Amino acid sequence: MKVALVHEFLTQFGGAERVLEVLHRIYPQAPVYTIFHDRVKTKGRYENWDVRESVLGRIPGARAHYKWYLPLMPWAVSSFDMKDYDVVISDSSAYAKWVRVGSGTHICYCHTPTRYLWQDRDTYVANLRYPAIVKIIVKPILSRFRRMDWEASQRVDIFIANSREVQNRIKRYYQRNSVVLYPPVDTDFFEVAPSTSNREYFLTGGRLEPYKHFELPILAANKLKIPLLVFGDGTESSELVRIAGPTVKILGRVTDEKLRSLYQHAKAFIYPALEDAGMSMVEAMSCGTPVLAYRRGGALEFVSEGLTGDFFDAQSVDSIVNAIADFKDERFTSQSIRNFALKFGVNEYRSKFEAIVSRSIQERGAP
């Protein structure tokens, strides 16, 4: 059986890339098709893989400014030659699902329908750091892309949603059914430290993008004058550095080993985003650390209130301030938190994913 993997961009490392690594572990011989592969930003992480970059990656300087090529990305994905593959697996939050498959089966592991085409379109346009004339031009382009995105969704044979939250979006925006398979977390790696008595700070972080709202826990920490560590990088990095008070430390991108240590020794992991799923929350819980999360979206599926964490009800500074003030770490035990997280492990994901692929091949009569 010939399998190909399709991933939007290898230009950063976040939850989607962790999913891709597990998919590549399941299908190690599968080539990975991607629009852009930035070897500098990914620090050679994929050098031993068969990565096949689109023609856009050959344009000088394009990788550094890949978002400028938004109008050409559908064409780039559609240009991938998939006719020889029995199964094509896209993991997608934007364009990977637009790939055109020949007679093979297209399975899409969907992180979310494209945010800036559907639920976050107006916010995306408002936050563009370009002149007003550019925003006026962008709106009809996004409307056209939205129609194209719907058309691409109809070509997918099987949708796998990474949460019930995303399953509902797939149904609402694409009118497609899907099965839910929660994203995999390496619970063998993210483990409880031998000693967790020195939990002295709160932790937040991930991809530092506007829609994640990491400014909220920073402003809450400023107000309470409590220690807060922030990991990750993204377009909001410089703004978060600017607003950080003396008790807040912006760490930037960290190694997996450093991230594990940060989780292990935090009082709690604060997650302010309306999240599709919850990989970073599960990583923290796998390390025995409770989570303070926004009471909406995927967090409701990954955090058990009173057992593995607590919720705050609004994406606001005051709501997070109140959640931190009410937080009592003695209510939680590290092993109970970790035990809950184990059901999101890699082995569980792998067995369920392989079963979905096998069933889909049998139903379509593929080799």
UniProtKB/TrEMBL annotation:
Name recorded for this polypeptide: Glycosyl transferase family 1 domain-containing protein
Species: Candidatus Doudnabacteria bacterium RIFCSPHIGHO2_01_FULL_50_11
Alphabetical list of SUPFAM superfamilies matching this protein: UDP-Glycosyltransferase/glycogen phosphorylase
Molecular function via GO: glycosyltransferase activity
Domain Glycosyltransferase subfamily 4-like N-terminal: 14-188
Classification via InterPro entries: Glyco_trans_1 (IPR001296), Glyco_trans_4-like_N (IPR028098), Glycosyltransferase_grp1 (IPR050194)
Domain Glycosyl transferase family span(s) in chain numbering: 190-339
